[in-house]
Write a structure and sequence with these properties.
single chain, 384 residues, alpha/beta, eight-stranded mixed β-sheet, 17 helices, 8 strands, binds iron/sulfur cluster
Length: 384
């Protein structure tokens, strides 16, 4: 294991990320779930004492590149700001000198969602359950799907543990679609002061919540609404199936107005996959125009890995050069091109299966991209 001067991570010290099934890990970047025990019904102090959690903290504080944190090491090696670095910048000074304790929570309330985005899966959206089961039934589970049924969860922690949660992230699930989100906020307000806490909600831009939720959000010390949008118009409707662009645009504009108050912030987060790699510029221009140049950040599609743009780094080399000039993060991603024929074939067969299931057409929705990709593909192609 490579040893360096500083590998400390505040999320291994104070963070907790909970999957809809109740499994947990220090952060969303960490490679595996640590345990199958139910984090919704286990006190965070006990989770934090889990031997694996202790091992991560020990190795990082010794300057060792713990293997579960590989995504952070890769990002840092590629010149990107890792989750470790951005979290340390925000929280390290506040908590490093204190005992390890869960203060930064990334959690949802099950997998209730109103969308089945193509780059998502059923652990985050029950709208994926049926299709995930279908995909899993292919020989050898070649698409690596892990179907989950609809799940509803509530956090059964003591009042003191809830009160200690200082930074809430709702980034893995669409909490605005969950009936348990409002009761959670109300409970949090009863047991602690929202004015000392921060909250970040990642939302697909199609849900305008009830007034009670909006009123509670205004009481936080700071509230960050992160609108998750991957493309405009018909491309949005394909990637963010079955959402409709007209709704997303209308609700996003309402969020922009709502977040004008001084404790509020808005940004847009885009998951870059092969589907939207060529239309990032159009999306950025739209966002700049309607938000007045608020932040747009890019995340990359690590799973399913066969939907990553890097699979076609060779085929699209000229186009990716142009995109990389506009979006330097994309250039850094392309330092590790996959360009693998087996992954390309998985992309085509996955897309065909999804299109067939949903009555969509990749060929018609992305005609330019289809034309470019199909040039280098050996063998028969079909995308409905
Ligand atoms: S180093 Fe990265 S992967 Fe590891 S716990 Fe910190 S943020 Fe998570």
């Amino acid at each position: 294991m490579e040893q360096t001067q500083d590998r400390f991570c505040i999320l291994a010290h104070s963070g907790l990320c909970i999957e809809s099934s109740g499994r947990f890990k220090p952060c969303c970047n960490y490679s595996t779930w640590l345990d199958s025990r139910d984090a919704y019904n286990t006190e965070p102090s006990e989770l934090s004492r889990h031997p694996e959690f202790k091992l991560i903290r020990r190795q990082l504080s010794q300057g060792l590149a713990h293997k579960g944190c590989q995504r952070c090491w890769d990002d840092e090696a590629n010149g990107l700001t890792s989750l470790r670095q951005s979290s340390n910048e925000k929280y390290r000074e506040q908590y490093e000198s204190l005992e390890p304790q869960i203060r930064i929570g990334d959690l949802g309330f099950g997998n209730t969602c109103n969308a089945a985005c193509t780059t998502c899966e059923s652990s985050s959206s029950q709208m994926w359950s049926e299709l995930d089961q279908h995909l899993q039934s292919h020989p050898g589970n070649k698409y690596q799907r892990d179907p989950h049924k609809p799940i509803k969860r509530k956090l059964n922690w003591s009042i003191s543990s809830l009160g200690r949660l200082m930074h809430l992230y709702h980034g893995q699930n669409e909490v605005l679609a969950s009936p348990d989100f409002l009761p959670f906020l109300e409970q949090l307000e009863r047991v602690s002061s929202l004015g000392e806490k921060t909250i970040l909600i990642s939302t697909n831009g199609s849900i305008w919540p009830p007034q009670k939720v909006l009123d509670l959000l205004k009481r936080f010390k700071s509230c960050h609404i992160q609108i998750s949008i991957d493309a405009l118009g018909a491309e949005n409707d394909y990637i963010r199936y079955p959402l409709k662009w007209s709704t997303v645009e209308t609700v996003t504009r309402r969020w922009i107005d709502f977040t004008q108050a001084k404790n509020m912030k808005i940004s847009m987060r885009t998951t870059v996959s092969i589907y939207n790699i060529l239309s990032l510029g159009d999306l950025r221009d739209w966002w700049n125009q309607c938000s007045g140049h608020q932040r747009m950040s890019l995340g990359f599609c690590w799973f399913p890995h066969y939907l990553s743009a890097s699979v076609f780094a060779g085929t699209l080399s000229e186009q990716l050069k142009r995109v990389s000039n506009e979006f330097p993060e994309v250039a850094k991603l392309m330092h590790n091109p996959t360009d693998d024929q087996a992954l390309a074939e998985l992309f085509w067969s996955f897309t065909n299966t999804v299109d067939e299931f949903r009555g969509l057409s990749f060929r018609e929705t992305f005609p330019t991209l289809f034309g470019l990709l199909s040039k280098s593909q050996k063998g028969a192609l079909c995308t409905i």
